[in-house]
Amino acid sequence: MEEPENLAVVPPSCEAGPCGNSCVFCYIRQNPPEVLREHGGNVDTTRHDTLNDPHLEERVERARDRYPDLRLRIVDTAGNVGIDEGRVESLAAAGIDEVQISLHTTVPETRKKLMGNPNADELLELLPKFEDVGIDVIADLVLTPGYNLRELPRTCEDLETMGARQVRVFPVGGTDLARGFRFPTRRELEWMRETSRRLDCELNIEVIPSPTIDALLGEPAFDPPDLPEPDFEAVIVVGELAAPIFEPAVRELENVELLVVKNRVFGGVIGASSLLTAKDVLREIERYEPRTEFPVLILPDAMFSPDGRTLDGWSREELVGKLAALGYTVVTCRKPEEVAKVLASPSPW
């Protein structure tokens, strides 16, 4: 989703406490063992909530003093801990502009059930307070069949009256280890997209369906990039959700192969390129038969964490070294424009 250029997110400190929830769809419970840090992976299963940070206001004040022209946002919060009217006022006084809340529904009983928290309904009464003190609310709704899916219209209507600025609609996702809920059907995905668009037109609040919905429907969430024909063999690696974007772009290119990697480590409906593991990439590369010596292999840079590791614990150097031993010249790209630049460059030999 597009964000304003002057946006800055204020992260929690290392002392942020737990979220206090046990959400039905919590990703922490769905991680396969091989990606957990205790088994050599790179996934941290610590639950935290930005509002449960005793130093949050201090961090906001420092950010405001240093960057007076930026819009400051709080994310990674469900709003079920560390929040009351006084806290909302103190955040406004510190200089926060907006808060992005994992809200999911405005139906009290559903929110308590979905989040596994008997106090999850208390936030709903506080929401109008944010508008009173000048803090914009962005409400994230993870629509889960059997729980809050059909409550989308009511929730958006309620949020309009509560003064929220924007609603972001996501389909629930998960791995093969998901329990207690099911993934949306194609018809349900189509319904949430069309309903979101209708509500966006009818209500005085932005209602934005996530591009993930388009991707799960096999439709491009963004326009295909303009990719040139290289004078060398190139293999572009993407996750399943990015395939509809890149397939039209490479269709007429003779020297480019699109390698769509299915995420078998996580399974479920996990198809983002950022969640690819080294194990899955290597499986597909070892099956691929290159037409030339030393083809260029383009990996999504997003599959590596800031410290340069994949979710299953491989360092960038380890994976690139393994792929180089298989005969590939490896580059990583974060944006389609970077892919185009690589393809337009002279042959690396």
From TrEMBL:
It comes from the Archaea. The keyword Calcium does not apply. InterPro entries: Aldolase_TIM, DUF512, Elp3/MiaA/NifB-like_rSAM, Fe-S_OxRdtase_NifB-like_arc, Radical_SAM_PqqE_MftC-like, rSAM, rSAM_sf. Keywords: Iron, Iron-sulfur, Metal-binding, S-adenosyl-L-methionine. SUPFAM superfamilies: Radical SAM enzymes (SSF102114). SMART domains: Elp3. Residues 6-195 form the Elp3/MiaA/NifB-like radical SAM core domain. The keyword Metal-binding applies. GO terms for molecular function: catalytic activity; iron-sulfur cluster binding. Pfam families: DUF512, Radical_SAM. This is Radical SAM protein.
